[in-house]
């Protein structure tokens, strides 16, 4: 009796492998509040099938910076960067924003009296430039102002929010650069880059100092696209960069 021939079972196809370098684990020192938004973003990225190179081209951010953000290393990321990544990964924006804010101690103040106090104590130094000693004194002064504005005690303040008359929020670190502070009075007195009627209701409108050395304003237009503007200190007005494409916000 002959045994029927059965062809051998072909080996299982290997699971698709993401090309490029494997993303490292989340850093051990990342706290629970930071992980609350980082882990969902990281998992969404891993499911997306995108490589760091592809994501880098879409959000115009270096691969190394994206890798640092997704591992929780380096500096705590700005909200604009987190939002651009979440938009590309099709994640909901505002729940993520609330989680992103939990980890930070933020002091919110009205812009005009704060800037008047800075001008009174450091006006000439801001205009002429200051040495490391004067800069340290200025940062301690800003930190005291920020702590005094909080509802409860705090040893460290991570961010300062200054409310402008146009309803924008100026986001800056306590250790803000003197040249950034020197531009703020004229910046806050100028017309807003986008009026309240042209913004999506209920969305934030923020101004922050960029690592490249200029102020950036960002918000969501009424049509649902996030836009950014840069401050021109010479012309004393906002300009919309042609190289930044609007980002649709869910």
Structure description:
Strands 1, 2, 3, 4, 5, 6, 7 and 8 form an eight-stranded mixed beta sheet that branches. The model is unreliable at 1-7 and 12-17 (pLDDT under 50). This protein is α+β, with helices and mostly antiparallel strands. The protein is 41% helix and 15% strand. The chain has eight helices and eight strands. Helix 1 (32-48) runs antiparallel to helix 5 (93-102). It has two domains: 32-102, lambda repressor-like DNA-binding domains (434 Repressor (Amino-terminal Domain), Orthogonal Bundle); 107-248, no CATH class.
- List the total number of helices: 8
Q: Report the strand count.
A: 8
Major sheet attributes: 8 strands, mixed
The overall average pLDDT, rounded, is 81
Brief summary:
The protein has two domains: 32-102, 434 Repressor (Amino-terminal Domain), CATH 1.10.260; 107-248, no CATH class. It contains eight helices and eight strands. The chain has helices at residues 32-48, 52-59, 63-71, 79-88, 93-102, 111-128, 132-149, 178-189; strands spanning 106-110, 159-163, 169-173, 206-209, 215-220, 225-232, 237-239, 247-248.
């Amino acid at each position: 009796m002959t045994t029927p021939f059965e062809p051998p079972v072909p080996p299982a196809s290997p699971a698709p492998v993401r090309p490029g370098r494997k993303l490292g684990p989340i850093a051990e020192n990342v706290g629970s509040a930071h992980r609350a938004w980082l882990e969902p973003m990281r998992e969404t990225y891993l499911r997306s099938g995108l490589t760091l190179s592809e994501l880098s081209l879409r959000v115009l951010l270096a691969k190394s910076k994206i890798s640092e953000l997704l591992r929780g290393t380096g500096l705590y990321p700005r909200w604009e960067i987190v939002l651009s990544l979440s938009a590309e990964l099709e994640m909901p924006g505002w729940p993520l924003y609330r989680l992103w804010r939990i980890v930070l101690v933020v002091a919110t103040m009205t812009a005009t009296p704060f800037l008047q106090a800075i001008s009174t104590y450091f006006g000439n130094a801001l205009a002429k430039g200051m040495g490391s000693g004067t800069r340290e004194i200025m940062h301690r002064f800003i930190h005291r102002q920020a702590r005094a504005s909080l509802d409860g005690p705090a040893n460290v303040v991570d961010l300062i929010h200054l409310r402008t008359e146009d309803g924008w929020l100026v986001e800056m670190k306590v250790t803000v650069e003197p040249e950034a502070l020197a531009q703020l009075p004229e910046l806050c007195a100028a017309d807003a880059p986008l009026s309240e009627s042209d913004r999506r209701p209920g969305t934030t409108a923020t101004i922050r100092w960029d690592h490249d050395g200029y102020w950036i304003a960002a918000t969501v237009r009424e049509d649902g696209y996030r836009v950014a503007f840069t401050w021109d200190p010479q012309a004393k007005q906002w300009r919309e960069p042609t190289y930044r494409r609007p980002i649709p916000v869910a």
